Amino acid sequence: MDNTFSCYKIEDRSLIAFIKREIHNLALQLGFTAHRAGEADIIVAELTSNLIKYANGGELLYRAHCDEGHNQIEIYCLDNGIGIDNISKIMHDGYSSSNTLGQGLGAIRRLSNDFQIYSLKDWGTVQYVKICDKSDYSVPALASGFNSSAFSVNYPGERVCGDGYHIKYLKRGFQIFVGDGLGHGVNANLAIQQAIKAFKHSGEHDPSEILRDIHDQVKKSRGLVATIACVDYAKETWNICGIGNISTRICFGLENKTYTPYNGIIGHNIPRTLNSTTVPYQKHQIIVMHSDGLRTRWNLNDLTSIIKQNPGLIAASLYKDNIRGTDDATVLVGKII
Asked: For the whole model, what pTM was predicted?
């Protein structure tokens, strides 16, 4: 299993049967029982039919994943429809705005292991669903400390992704890597996989030195751009350094601070001097890192109460509003609770 989400734009009902069959077969491959795969069918049917009925279409992203020994399917459902005024009201069975039985979102919540939703009037809706192989598995609540979520989507038509990310946890803190192989397709994917391998094996703690380690290991590849953000628990600091156009922003209340990377291509030419930026690491910060598959002119303060949502909904909301569709796209969001 990799970290890449399959992505389908749903503009009419013609794709729904295909997507249901694809996710059903994926569930069986992951070891889901026939009954559990059938419950996944119901969830997918409700999500996709709602896109057609209420939003005139949207986008469905899904992937296979393994977490804490549980095989699972993760789904994001995005639309630019009229939005939902009162989410808690429509979650109750029997409520409907279209003369149906009114069991759609309630059924999704009951049959999934985790269901999250964010919506604004005239903006649209973002839904997240996690379907585990065991229906009674309880997904742990967000723990205090650092919580993150991320996803990558291939350039349209490509089978592999040239973007990538990895988080390495250490006793003294953690390190985040987000990178983008030049171009897209197989060669970009090879470059990013070599970079992630070098990142995992680097023993350095300063992001500038980690970037130098990666540079030495990927010289035979197409090359890439990347940013690394490191946290030191004892010093309570972020150290951030990047080469190329990975966007990195730390949001804290109304403040949004963007960290400017160096020019260059890792594996080809990097600056002789690399200095990390050091900033405080503190509760209630949100770090957002993404490749140039997303536009950079966004502001979380434009989305009402988005900072209260979990990292996955924040990432999906930024993706929905800012995806270019002309390259691979990766977005990683971390919250300090």
From this structure: 0.94
Q: In whole angstroms, give the CA distance from residue 335 to residue 74.
A: 20
Tell me the pLDDT tens digit for each residue of 66-96.
887 889 999 999 999 999 887 877 766 544 5
> Whose CA is closest to 225, among 159, 169, 165, 315?
165
Give pLDDT tens digits for 43-62.
999 999 999 988 999 999 99
The DSSP-derived string for 136-194 is TPPPPPPPSSEEEEEEEEPPTT-SS-SEEEEEEEETTEEEEEEEEESSSSHHHHHHHHH
Q: β-pairing, 146-153 with 255-258?
A: unpaired
Phi and psi at 116, nearest 5°, equal -130, 145
Please name the residues in contact with 115: beta carbons below 8 A apart, sequence gap of 6 or more: 108, 109, 127, 128, 129, 130
Q: Provide the sign of the torsion angle of the four alpha carbons 80, 82, 83, 87, taken in this order.
A: negative
Q: Which tens digits make up the pLDDT trace of 273-305? A: 999 999 999 999 999 999 999 999 999 999 999
Measured distance CA(53)–CA(55) in Å, rounded? 6
Domains of the chain: 4-132 (3.30.565.10), 146-336 (3.60.40.10)
Written as one letter, the residue type at 335 is K
